[in-house]
Amino acid sequence: MLTDGDVTRLSYFVTAKANSDDVEPITARCWMRSTVGNQRTADLSAGDAVVVTSAVFQGRKPVVNANVSVSVTGSGGVDGGSFHLLDNGAGADLVANDGLYSAYFIPAGQANGEYSFRCRIEGWEPSAHYEEGESSWHTTKVINAAMDSSAVSNTTSPICCGGDAWRSDATANATGNFTREYAVFGAIVVTGLVEGMDTVAPNKVTDLHVAVSEEDAANSVIVSFTAPGNDSTNGKGK
Q: Are 88 and 127 in contact (CB under 8 A)?
């Protein structure tokens, strides 16, 4: 759009291609959603939540072990910090190792306002994709569920909600190094928080283990778990 010869806004599209016709390109995209009601507003005091998700694939094969970070821009262009998306089947992420990386967004300082997001996806030698699309039909089901929360209740879906898409008979190949960036379309308005007050509870524990103590089996047990975060899955529990 031009105004008096000056460019006020410019949109462009970049298509990535592999350096060989025999190698499928790695693609990544990101989106956000509120879990209840209007997709552009989220009242966190009324049980709503903001989820940011990134889909990372090589062709139709999910890419796992990637590093997915999200930079946040607040009202007036203020730097809102950053957080990471995970593909571990916990919190906002429905299924582990399906190529969909997700996390709940809680504003820094629990400040209400308008927020936008930009994802950066990085891969290195540990990153890998499934061989021969072993779980491609599982992945298709999960993508639909992640984009439309009403589809999660579909009983025909073979895996969901804490499951793991990495089948025992699947193999993996290293993707090599790569970097992708994706600006999430639009912004979301967060309301219902009390700025400066810690009103968001930690996420639920998903890996609780209890074992009998070998040293004092009659009187002691050992409890272990991973702290899920301070505000939902964000930060460190206290």
A: no
Cβ proximity of 97 and 165 under 8 Å = yes
> Could you give the CA distance from residue 105 to residue 61 in angstroms, rounded to a whole number?
27
Q: Which residue has the tokens 């702290």?
A: 227
Give the amino acid at 148: D
What is the token pair recorded at 189? 């308005």
End-to-end CA distance of the chain: give it in Å, rounded.
49
Distance CA 142, CA 128 (A): 19
Give all strands (DSSP E) within the chain, no chain letters.
Answer: 2-3, 6-7, 26-34, 41-43, 50-58, 61-64, 67-73, 79-85, 95-96, 100-104, 113-123, 128-130, 163-164, 172-174, 178-183, 188-191, 209-212, 221-224
Question: What pairs with residue 2 in β-bridges?
Answer: 7
CB 120 within 8 A of CB 68: yes
Name the one residue in this structure whose structure tokens are 């007036």.
Answer: 76
Helix (H) or strand (E) holding 136: helix 136-147
Q: What CA–CA distance (Å, rounded) separates 86 from 102?
A: 5
User: How confident is the model over 109-168, as pLDDT tens digits?
Assistant: 888 999 999 999 998 775 666 554 444 433 322 222 333 333 333 334 445 666 787 776
Handedness of CA 115, 121, 126, 128 (dihedral sign): positive
Query: Looking at the whole model, is its pTM more than 0.90?
Result: no
